[in-house]
Design a protein that fits this description.
By secondary structure, the protein is an all-beta fold. The chain contains one helix and 13 strands, in the order E-E-E-E-E-E-E-E-E-E-E-E-E-H. A five-stranded antiparallel beta sheet has the order 2-1-10-9-7, with no helix packed on it. It has a five-stranded antiparallel beta sheet with strand order 4-3-5-6-8, with no helix packed on it. The structure holds zinc ion (2 copies). One zinc ion (ZN) binds next to strand 13.
Length: 178
């Protein structure tokens, strides 16, 4: 997950690591995004793993910080969702939870987890793709013991769990005309 930030006229992704990302003002009063909990941080964005769906919480550390989330003053701890708009001072940021779908190896053993498309039980070592939006696992290649190529992720234009279209899950602020 990441924050979108406009720099030199271009929207760039600033990654949010497992230790979070601090928002603070530098000596020139310009916004600085620093890994982890930084000294003088006005707010902290912390990743939240919730049933596979990637989200984050924005923790406001300074009561006087001029922060708005979707045009409102955030709660002390505010859950961020995809595309949420964060304004700090005169800087505009967007929260992006989703990363492009990629093929990985299923790591759990005997978890009983099933492919969201074909509903077959997933085994450790199966090639899987997770939905960028909801995190549901899908077969990405041929499951163990199957001769035929089976890609449950590519089989349909929508995710087998959340039914969001596979195309259009990822976005950038440029598309917003922002
Ligand atoms: Zn499957
Ligand atoms: Zn999904």
């Amino acid at each position: 997950m990441h924050l979108w930030r406009l720099s030199d006229g271009e929207w760039k992704q600033v990654p949010i690591g497992s230790e979070g990302l601090s928002l603070r003002l530098g000596e020139d009063e310009r916004l600085e995004l620093v890994d982890g909990v930084a000294e003088g941080a006005l707010a902290l964005v912390l990743p939240v793993e919730e049933g596979g769906a990637a989200r984050a919480s924005l923790v406001t550390l300074s009561r006087s910080a001029a922060i708005l989330v979707n045009a409102y003053r955030p709660l002390g701890v505010q859950i961020l969702d995809e595309r949420d708009e964060i304004i700090l001072g005169d800087e505009l940021l967007y929260f992006g939870a989703r990363s492009p779908a990629r093929v990985t190896r299923f790591e759990q053993t005997d978890s009983g987890a099933r492919c969201a498309r074909c509903k077959r039980v997933l085994h450790a070592g199966d090639a899987v793709t997770r939905c960028p939006a909801c995190g549901a696992f899908h077969h990405a290649g041929s499951p163990a013991g199957e001769a035929e190529e089976l890609s449950c992720w590519n089989h349909d234009a929508r995710c087998g769990a959340c039914a969001r279209p596979r195309d259009g899950m990822l976005w950038s602020p440029e598309e917003e005309g922002a």
